[in-house]
Structure formats: C-alpha cells, structure tokens
Design brief:
Length: 331
C-alpha cells in the first residue's frame, strides 16, 4: 500500500517540441516506477520549423511527422484526445472520454493560430504556420507567374520570431530557381522598428540580408485588416500595401482550454516562475510557447525548458541527484 502511494503520475499536455522532450526524459529517468502520460489531439508529433520547406515543395507532410506512440518505448503512455479542461483543485484533466488525475502536470500546449483576429485574413492571406495552410500556399506558389508577394507579421506573439525572415529568403530562392525572380517583387512588413546597431546583431544582420536579396522592408507597419477584394493590406494611419500574393503570419494566442481554466491570463501565455517554470498552481508547470517567458517562442527554448524541468522533477520524485538552474540560450 505504501509502495503504491509513492508511485507518481506525471501528465504532460501537448506532444509538440516541449511535450515530447519532457515525456522522453521523464520516461527514461523514471522508468516503470512511475506513470508518465502524454496527451495530444493529434496522433503525430509535427516538426513545425519544416513547414517552410513544405511551402516550397522540399518536404512532404510524412517527412516531418512522427507517430507519438513511439514514445511508448520510453515508458510513456500516449493518449490521443482533445484536452477540454484542467481542474487544479481536483488535480484532474478532462478529456473527451475520461478524466485523468495527476500528481504533476506539465502544460506544453503551444500557441494556437488565430486568423480570425485580423478582418479579411481568412479570405486574403496564406501562410506556412500550419501544415494544411503550408500545403495550400505551396499550390498557390506553383501557380504564381509574377507580381507582388507581400510577407508580414501581426501584432502579438507568434511562433519563431525569425521565421518570417527565413520565409522571405526562401521565397526569394524559390523564385530565382524557377527563373521568375525578375518578375516578382517581394515586400516585408513588420510592426517592429527598423533595427540599428552592430552588424553582428541578429536583427541588424537579418535586415541587411533581406536588403541584399532585393526585398523591400516596411518597418512599424501595424495591420488593421486585409481587403481581399482590392488585394490590399490595410495598416494604421492609412498606410496600405497592395499585394498579388499575401503570406502573413496569423495572430497566435494561448489554447482556449488554458484561457478557460484561468491558467493563461495574457496573450503571451501562462505566467511562470522564470527559474522553476512553476505556475500559480501547485505542481503545475508550463514550458514552451504557452509559457510567458522572456524568450522567443521557439522549439529550441521549449526543448531546453523541458530538459531542465524533467531533470528537476525526476530529482524531486526519486530523491536522487541535484536540481539544476535554467540557463536559456536564445535570441
Ligand atoms: C514556420 C515555423 C518555423 C519555425 N522555425 C523554428 C526554428 O527554426 N527554430 C525553433 O526553435 N523554433 C521554430 N519554430 C517554432 C517551434 O515550432 C515552436 O516554438 C515549438 O513547436 C513550440 O513547442 P511547444 O511544445 O511549446 O508547442 P507546440 O509544438 O505548438 O505543441 C503544442 C501541442 O499541443 C497540442 N494541443 C494544443 N491544444 C490542445 C488541446 N486543447 N487538446 C489537445 N492537444 C492540444 C497541439 O496539437 C500540439 O501538438 C517554427 C515554427 C513555425 C510555425
């Protein structure tokens, strides 16, 4: 009886970068002595950085997807379900068909794309920030014969701040390879101010690289709406950018379940202790894009946070080893 009560149940929400790393590490470190459970609505882990390669036809969906059940080799039970609720008083997560209780809960639910937050986005813009939309954009690019391609970003957080720059450069390379670059103008807009400073500063370097490729940059451009009939991006103060093909990053927000349960209180996610990743609720932690950390919303960050949290939880549960500090390496 005493042995049973020492057995801990660690539930991980989300099988993206953070969730998979946390589950793998905890499964390895705790073995069969404890229960590690990972829950995601999808059957597969999807490697989102490769969406840009899907966009230009260099990757297929199967190349960047792995079935989450592979984790069962690492002592992780995988449940495919929508996560509908979290109750910290009962230490319980509500799924479609069951409720799962936990001793420790790790939320790694990422950010959700919310095209509905920009009027006209659904009709007017395409993007490679989800698999389906990356595939649709690929078709549009294949049919594109010339004109003005506008790449841009919204207000608020989004997955991987440097990725819109990579997207412009990959489009530049794509059109060069197709012999179409002379017939394509590429513009980029961002809400950020024009970067200044040392040439090795990443944002200064990225700005210079876009200029070198002949991309026209529009800084401090804040999108209000997209007029898909006139094919114009409408910015604040009557700044307008006409386009033939618009590739805009959709706004992102925390998962609805995290907002509904009161854990995510701002658009940038769940407030956490920067050292321990602990949320306001006992034994509930947040990592990756859903955690409101002073760091990029990036898989590299999610991975580092998952490593450290898994180590520290394993130390707490087993009483073996020493906890480590979180030292993030990011831009
Ligand atoms: C185009 C692009 C390029 C990128 N490039 C890079 C790069 O070069 N380097 C880098 O470090 N990062 C990059 N990223 C960012 C990186 O992919 C994310 O930061 C990372 O995936 C975040 O990991 P996560 O675990 O926090 O969330 P995610 O990977 O988003 O995983 C969240 C998981 O939660 C699941 N989920 C959410 N809500 C629910 C629910 N209610 N019920 C059930 N399941 C749910 C989702 O299905 C998903 O599997 C890029 C992203 C994109 C889109």
């Amino acid at each position: 009886m005493q042995l049973l009560s020492r057995r801990k149940k660690i539930v991980i929400l989300g099988g993206g970068c953070g969730g998979v790393v946390a589950a793998t590490q905890l499964g390895r470190k705790l073995g069969a002595d404890h229960d590690v459970i990972l829950i995601d609505r999808r059957p597969d882990h999807i490697f989102m950085p490769a969406f840009l390669f899907v966009m230009i036809g260099e990757r297929q969906p199967r190349d960047i997807s792995r079935n989450l059940k592979i984790l069962e080799k690492r002592n992780v039970r995988v449940i495919q379900s929508e996560i509908l609720g979290i109750d910290p008083m009962r230490q319980e997560v509500t799924l479609e068909k069951e409720k799962i209780n936990y001793d420790y809960l790790i939320t790694s639910l990422g950010l959700q794309t919310r095209p509905d937050l920009v009027p006209g986005f659904a009709e007017g813009s395409q993007h490679p920030w989800e698999m389906e939309s990356a595939l649709r954009l690929r078709e549009s690019l294949e049919a594109f014969r010339g004109g003005r391609v506008v790449v841009g970003v919204p207000l608020g957080p989004y997955r991987c701040p440097p990725a819109p720059y990579e997207a412009q450069w990959m489009l530049d390379g794509y059109f060069r390879q197709k012999g179409l670059r002379e017939r394509v103008q590429i513009d980029y807009f961002t809400r950020d101010p024009e970067p200044t400073g040392e040439a090795h500063d990443p944002v200064v370097w990225m700005n210079a690289e876009s200029q070198r490729r002949g991309i026209k940059l529009h800084y401090e451009f804040v999108v209000r709406a997209i007029d898909h009939e006139k094919k114009v991006v409408q910015g604040l103060y009557n700044y307008n950018l006409p386009y033939d093909l618009l590739v805009m990053v959709p706004p992102h927000r925390p998962a609805q379940v995290l907002i509904d349960c009161g854990l995510a209180e701002s658009e940038t996610g769940i407030r956490v202790d920067y050292d321990t990743l602990q949320t306001k609720w006992d034994n509930v932690y947040a990592i990756g894009d859903c955690a409101d950390m002073p760091a990029s919303k990036a898989g590299g960050v999610a991975h580092q946070e998952a490593d450290v949290l898994a180590h520290n939880l394993a130390v707490e549960i087993t009483g073996k080893g020493r906890p480590v500090d979180l030292w993030l390496h990011t831009i």
